[in-house]
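Translate sequence into structure tokens.
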Amino acid sequence: MRGYLLSRMARHMLADAAESLIVYAWGHNFITLEESVTILAKTDDAAEGFSQLLAVIKGRIKFS
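Result follows.
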């Protein structure tokens, strides 16, 4: 996500942006809640799970 946001953003601001993107994707039917849970459950590391979830979302949402 750092490639799309300001370089000097704090971690909690990046986390807020990631959370907003996940909610946007779910709210606009780019991903289902069940699919999100499945992706997050595939790994024991929460950070890696969210990274994979955001990668899936990034592949589905096209920003111009």
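Note: The first helix runs from residue 11 to 27.
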